[in-house]
Write a structure and sequence with these properties.
single chain, about 475 residues, alpha+beta, 4-stranded antiparallel beta sheet, 16 strands, about 35% helix, elongated
């Protein structure tokens, strides 16, 4: 039997060792009636800290590598599997909300750690209980996946995954792993996409901090299961008057936006539509993690850029892209503003994707090579590779760079520039930078003196290559 009188009570309880098993780690036999979760619930597991682990057996941990609490303390591990990580091991979901209900009046919540661990501290469960994972934290709320049956609440409420009813007396090692999905729009798709997005947001913030780039503000994000694009309208920061102005300019009719209005309310009544408009939409139809991350990082780069330029600048960008139904071309209204903002977001998105995956990609080559070999989105418009060429070692490209047109238009890049870094380039992307020419002037006048080895002529030649 395995009871509190067993010398190896804890290890026996977990099923690792028998009650009198002499092979059990040393700390197991040191657990007495004064240090176990049944007789000393308030002191557990702190009382283990004084136990020597001379044999290296270690304290029991969950799948995320975190020490298990007492059996009746709710806790566990929430993970998501990345399709491109070489180890193929799931990673912890960072800062997801766990909701625990005891079936009566007790509802408790906590957030997962960076490793994906969670526990409901100072709570001992005894009967049936119920658990949900909600994709919401102090930095974001994720919603979406309204489905073909128009489940309106999914367009408004945070994405919440019901894990199920728990019982049996042991609650401390509840493991949830969000695996890659098969059926588009399914619960599996929703959970995997939401978990991947939370982790991408946390990682973007870390990379931005290291680069000297502003982190995005709080974001209300809508996930669209059937789309591969996105937008960063930044609704709450533009304010109602600016958003209404955008609607008047055709926001509800734009191909990249009408899905939300139609699905949720089916009306063009602005007062009804406004509350459900998100700050950001992310198309999450991709099954490969690196492609999904590139979309997420792109839109988060927009949100970061917004902090530099403010709502009036961003309203002009939204107006231009609504009129162009996307990025447009060199003849679109306010094409220069679109070129600056979209090329920067594409640069950051693909740079951060490359840092995470290196050669482990679903695309041909790698994401940095993709930046180096890309010139513009369309002819003379949105210079995608420009920012990377200001940073990388000069003249490393052994082929022409090409536009994303069909068929592609290609040409040489005169790149005798290197040594700039992302934080510097971000610092000059101020409200005055409304086109690529102004951006070039600020690079020359503001940044060039701090980056020796480059010349104004070299920078001109590089910009002119695009």
């Amino acid at each position: 039997m395995c009871d509190p009188d067993c010398p190896n009570f804890l290890c026996c309880l977990y099923g690792h060792y028998g009650c009198e098993d002499e092979e059990a780690p040393g700390w197991c036999s040191d657990i007495t009636l004064g240090c176990n979760p049944w007789t000393n619930p308030e002191g557990w597991p702190q009382c283990l800290e004084d136990i020597d682990d001379d044999d290296g057996g270690g304290l029991p941990t969950n799948a995320c590598g975190c020490t298990l609490p007492s059996p009746r303390t709710p806790g566990g591990c929430i993970r998501v599997r990345d399709t491109r990580l070489p180890t193929n091991q799931p990673e912890g979901v960072n800062d997801a909300k766990v909701i625990w209900w005891d079936g009566w009046l007790g509802i408790k919540t906590t957030q997962t750690t960076e490793a994906g661990c969670w526990r409901i501290a100072n709570h001992r469960e005894s009967g049936k209980a119920y658990m949900w994972v909600q994709f919401k934290n102090s930095q974001t709320k994720l919603r979406g996946f309204i489905g073909n049956t128009v489940q309106i609440w999914r367009g408004v409420l945070p994405i919440t995954d019901y894990i199920g009813q728990l019982g049996g007396g042991v609650y401390n090692n509840i493991n949830v792993t969000y695996e890659p999905w098969v059926n588009q729009g399914s619960n599996a798709h929703r959970g995997w996409a939401a978990a991947s997005t939370l982790n991408a947001l946390a990682e973007f913030r870390g990379q931005a901090l290291a680069d000297g780039i502003a982190a995005p503000p709080y974001l209300d994000i809508f996930l669209a299961s059937d789309r591969g694009d996105g937008f960063a309208l930044m609704k709450r920061y533009l304010g109602q008057a600016r958003v209404y102005a955008a609607m008047e300019l055709g926001l509800l009719q734009a191909n990249f936006f009408n899905f939300l209005a139609w699905h949720v309310l089916g009306t063009a009544n602005y007062d009804l539509i406004y509350p459900v408009i998100p700050d950001m939409m992310l198309g999450v139809r991709f099954q490969e993690s690196d492609v999904l991350r590139s979309v997420i990082y792109h839109e988060l780069a927009h949100a970061s850029h917004f902090t530099n330029v403010g709502p009036n600048y961003w309203m002009l960008l939204a107006t231009a892209e609504i009129a162009a139904d996307g990025w447009g071309d060199e003849n679109s209204q306010d094409a220069g503003r679109i070129a600056v903002c979209e090329s920067w977001a594409e640069h950051v998105g693909e740079t951060y994707t490359h840092r995470r995956y290196l050669e482990n990609n679903s695309i041909f080559g790698d994401w940095e090579r993709r930046l180096e070999t890309t010139r513009n989105d369309t002819t003379n418009h949105v210079p995608i590779g420009l920012h990377h060429d200001l940073i990388d070692v000069a003249n490393v490209l052994d082929t022409n760079a090409c536009d994303r047109t069909r068929p592609p238009q290609c040409g040489p890049i005169v790149d005798n520039v290197s040594g700039f870094f992302n934080g510097q380039l971000f610092s000059v992307l101020t409200p005055q930078v409304s086109n690529i020419e102004v951006y070039r002037d600020r690079v020359i006048n503001v940044l060039l003196p701090a980056v020796p080895g480059n010349t104004a002529q070299g920078i001109d030649d590089l910009f002119n290559s695009y």
